Amino acid sequence: MSHSDPRGAPIHLDNLTITYQRHPAVHHVTGSFEAGSLTAIIGPNGAGKSTLIKALTGTMAASEGRIDRAGMSPSRYGYLPQAAEVDRSFPLSVFDTVAMGDWHRLGVFGGMKRQDVARALDALDKVGLTGFEQRRISELSSGQFQRVLFARLLLQDAPVILLDEPFNAIDERTTRDLLTLIRHWHEHGRTVIAVLHDMSQVRQCFPQTLLMAREAIAWGPTDEVLQHHNLRRANMMEESWRADAHTCALHEEEQA
Ligand SMILES: Nc1ncnc2c1ncn2[C@@H]1O[C@H](COP(=O)(O)OP(=O)(O)OP(=O)(O)O)[C@@H](O)[C@H]1O
């Protein structure tokens, strides 16, 4: 049941640079996530993948260049942060956590009508968590909690969905189930972007790939991107930035 237009929107990066204390984590990246595309972002540790995702959500500003979201506000994007960034010590129930996915539609004090409750229960059913509604989120396994967060995304019904390492430390069965949801989002025309580390998953399920090592090493059809020479270049860049912390000359000049 869709209450907003679920069709994805394109996102264009134009010479995008994002820095932490002048050190670029994302450096001069240009390219497009087409509307309705399904893209994996891969690269070595520290390659700038999470930083790029945060920039797409609008929580990190560009130091240089820009992100063109084709007029769509990033507040409409669905976002799944890395598990380590999610605090689940709050005494929230599974149902309330999922229902929060609907706040943009209901408003903070909107109150849930019968059909809103049904939508939340339906989302929980789709991730296999019927019967867990009143459980505290602190009492779930990592895999169950990830299912809760996917149910919340289902309810949010966002046209653009950003996932940061959604399968980190998640069991095989949960991963398979959640990959099926991602496939459905793609089939319904949403734009989906996921940071991943498992190359076989990327090859099997993601038609497009952006390989990053601070810069975009390659961006396009997955088979073309995952070629040996590209992967080798990404690893070489990782080794070189460890030896020599790089600063962004242009940005330094701006700040001087
Ligand atoms: N808050 C921060 N302050 C300063 N530097 C940061 C901060 N967050 C990340 N960095 C640095 O920016 C670079 C990119 O980090 P980022 O987390 O985007 O990489 P990543 O590709 O997602 O890595 P991983 O695969 O290990 O999660 C790294 O060198 C990291 O140390």
TrEMBL record:
GO MF entries: ATP binding; ATP hydrolysis activity
Chain ranges of the ABC transporter domain: 11-239
CDD domains: ABC_Metallic_Cations
SMART domains linked to this entry: AAA
Keyword Ligase: no
Keywords: ATP-binding, Nucleotide-binding, Transport
SUPFAM superfamilies membership: P-loop containing nucleoside triphosphate hydrolases
Keyword ATP-binding on entry: yes
Alphabetical list of InterPro entries matching this protein: AAA+_ATPase, ABC_transporter-like_ATP-bd, ABC_transporter-like_CS, Metal_Ion_Import_ABC, P-loop_NTPase
Similarity comment: Belongs to the ABC transporter superfamily.
Protein name stated in the entry: Zinc/manganese transport system ATP-binding protein
